[in-house]
Amino acid sequence: MPIDPAIVGSRSPEFSTVAERGRLRFFTAATGQNDPIYSDMEAAGSAGHRDLPVPPTFLFCLEMDHPDRGSFLTDLGIDQRTILHAGQKFEFHDQAYAGDTLTFSTEVKDVYAKKSGALEFIVRATHVTRDTTPIATLTSTIVVRDPKAGQ
Known about the structure:
The protein is an alpha+beta fold. It has a single domain (5-19, 53-145), classed as Hotdog Thioesterase (Thiol Ester Dehydrase, Chain A, Roll), CATH 3.10.129. The chain has helices at residues 21-30, 41-46, 58-63, 71-75; strands at 15-18, 83-92, 101-114, 119-130, 133-145.
């Protein structure tokens, strides 16, 4: 099923979530971060941070907090068994910290096909803000495989 290019520019409902200190420490340990600024308040303060800084890729984890994150694909009629994560890019604008309430707003930036439509790609940009301050732009690409292609 071809993805309608008219979805370019469409937006998902925004949501907000808190960067909790305990989750940050867990993420830091799970990803092998050795820098104590990500887990120790004294080290973070000594380095000039007002709280534990949010590690760069933790924003992707927070994006997964969206209360209705699968609805975008469902609304397009896409079987989630046919998708793959094809890429992720992070552009940082300001530092986020433990305790910050971050707002995530996602829009479709591009849709394109390869292999005569057997693979379709959806590029989405998620803008992360704290109040009105831009924190980061997370760009993700998913590929949708047409299970009927090549039959």
